Amino acid sequence: MLLVFSVVLLLGLWWPAPGPTTIDSDLTKLLTGLTGPWSLVWDVSYASLIVWPLILIVIVCLSRGRRRLLVDWLLAVIAAAGLAIGIGDLAGTPWSVSFDSLASTGPPQVYLAVRLALVTAVLVTASPHLSRPLRLVGRGVLACGAVSAIALGVAYPVGVIAGFTVGLGAAALAHVALGSPGGELSDAEVAEALAEFGLVVTDVETAPLQSPGVVLKTALDQDGGRLLIKVYGRDAWDSQFLAGLWTAAVRRGERPHLGRSRQGQLEHEAVATLVAERAGVPVLSEVLVGQTSDGDAVLVSRLRGRRLSQLGAADVDDAQLRRAWDALMRLHDAGLSHGRIDGDRVLALPDGTIALADLAESDLTASRDAVVTDRARLLATTATLVGHERAVAAAVAELTPEGMTEVLPYLQAAVLDRSTRTAVKNAQWDLSALRDAAAASVGVTPPPLERLRRVSLKSVAFAVVGTALAYWLITRLAGVDFSAIAKELSAANWWWIAGALMLSPTVQAAYAVGTMGASIKPLRYGPVAMLQYAIQFIAVALPATAARLALDVRFFQRFGVAAAGAISIGLIDSAGGFVVQVALIALISLTALPGLTSPLGGSTSSSSSSTTSTGPDILVIVLVVIGILLVAAATTWLVPSARRRVTAFVPRARSTIAAQRSSAEDALRVLRRPRNLAQIISGNVGAQLLQAVILGLCLEAFGQTAHLSQLVLVNTLVSLFAGLMPVPGGVGVAEAGYTACLQAIGIPSAVAISTALAFRLVTFYLPPLWGSVAMGWLRRHQYV
């Protein structure tokens, strides 16, 4: 994989080679401008590219069992040197100049960075042989050395990336040719490893069930009993990193557990199995836990029974289905979640007991989402085996109606593993039929599905469109000059930005007043304020309006408000903010207050660019936005599937409103109370004014000022626009919007971009730090 990745990346780098591109020039100018003590940092970092590999070579020479690594290094260095000099010559750098750059600590820049290529080859080749601390030091040396190569003028960024890629490819080539110490153990090697612990086994063979990063074998002990052998090899972390990172990136609630070592993974599963066994959960009993002399972690369990995926509907009776649920409920009562419930990890033992196997992905402090996910997976797994009618009946016998209702939103393909999804496709029913049957069994209407996937084609499309729009806005209106931006940032008065950061938490304090006004029930200010800070924490993953509404609903339900009433309160709160934003825009636009076309109320920075936006630019943006909306509406109407979704939504919405009208009407009574209306309006107006003041402080940091009404208009326009965009947190869109609007009131381009970045830093990117604390407080006090 690394070799293929290196080849593809080198081919992609051929287009900008040998440089410099605009980005290369700007980044080089930025780093070379850092002088004084930075010069010493660059010299030491670049010298460490020679010192650290020499230290490793000495360590290997003094180690008896690792001297073979010298041969691997020799092959990798020869391959890296040949590729680096050859590619550089093809790109226009003579081989003699590339060779001289090995000892050079300054210009001329070469393509590619030969010293970095050789050191990367050495460190990556040695990586499987090294302990984790040594690997981390090596990665730090590479990162610092790469930056120093740019700062010293040895190579441009494109040449540094190419050098790293060549070294990575050379190391991968050495591993492919000579092997690495972390490959999958053979059957004979597994038997030898167990013999170290005094366990003699025969008939070792690969198990039919496999997990990412783990070698699974089956064998027979001296008494003829079947054993399941799990080996965490030296390469286990690599494959688990890829699988775990992908799952965590795509699906909500999943965590990759990337920090566990082999021994840590082994101990985690052993402890989870012990805790489950003491809680009365039928599990596979452990025979051996240990680590071999080669560093492989081994867990041996006594294998009994057959996997549910091997059985038919006639082989499992209703009593066994209930025992499966009883085993899972015992596990959850002990505070654990399983994490991998499927037909291969639920075993039917000869005595009719149902056991749970493979607790490697269990969580010892399970969240509610993890618990409900386990239950949804077990329901789907048993349904694929015996049909949804028997499966639902067994689940209802063990779960309360509330528990079954909680499972319903999780009955979706995103929750299930690949084998269970395949079994569902082959069944005579689908997941919607299973949800309907489960909902009917407890007499409820099937609720909307829980949003579990972080990444989908739609979200990727929205992110691409949002990024493209932000790039177009900035390049259209800002006339981007990265060196000018760097100059403005370096000359900024950071005391003003610190003041803006100190004032930032008061915005949520104002929003809390509006939220209290939206509730018909009396609330305490403290928890509501914590709610607002927590919204900033989750807004980095969801669009701001959606995040606020979802958390509002969960919060108000804890106060005994029905679901419809909680939704109504959240909608009233959000609608109040929207009305205030529109009213502020109308007030400033229709009165004599300074707006986008008025002159500035302060001085201009002498160091700033004088480029400003023009009327036609603003008109073009407005026309483009209107065009996008018209194209979206036309596409929705012309595409039959999209049109059906829109038209089908209306009757569903009407039926939902009619079914829950009484609860919603109770919440809507706040609109007839002057005090509540005053709280809604004052809270949202206060929040908008405070944000405008914070924007003014950020602007002041770069030597510019503006009228308060202009700042209010800029902040309100961008907040409204970014809130309507389906981009989490308005990332990219908000920055571009602030840049465009600040230019529209006469702020130079470099200052506008710098101010936008500083404002977003203190109001969006840093607040999640204390927002996470607020979320933890709400959870500890059971408000969410």
What keyword list fits this structure?
4 domains, 32 helices, Transferase(Phosphotransferase), domain 1, 63% helix, mainly alpha, 784 residues, five-stranded antiparallel beta sheet
Commentary on this structure:
- This protein is mostly helical.
- It folds into 4 domains: 2-178, no CATH class; 187-302, Phosphorylase Kinase, domain 1 (2-Layer Sandwich); 306-442, Transferase(Phosphotransferase), domain 1 (Orthogonal Bundle), CATH 1.10.510; 458-780, no CATH class.
- It has helices spanning 2-13, 22-32, 37-61, 69-90, 95-100, 114-126, 132-151, 157-178, 187-195, 236-250, 262-278, 318-333, 368-386, 388-398, 401-407, 418-426, 431-442, 457-477, 482-490, 494-503, 505-518, 525-538, 544-557, 563-590, 615-638, 640-659, 661-667, 674-700, 708-724, 733-744, 749-765, 768-780; strands at residues 202-206, 215-220, 226-232, 286-291, 297-302, 306-307, 346-348, 354-356.
- It has a 5-stranded antiparallel sheet with strand order 1-2-3-5-4, with helices on both faces. Strands 6-7-8 form a 3-stranded antiparallel sheet, with helices on one face.
- Helix 21 packs antiparallel against helix 28 and helix 24 crosses helix 29.
Offer a quick outline of the entry.
The protein is mainly alpha-helical and 784 residues long. Helix content is 63%, strand content 5%. The longest helix is centred in the C-terminal third of the chain and has 28 residues, at 563-590.
Q: What is the tally of helical segments?
A: 32
Overall average residue pLDDT: 79
Shape: flat
Tell me the Rg in angstroms.
31 Å
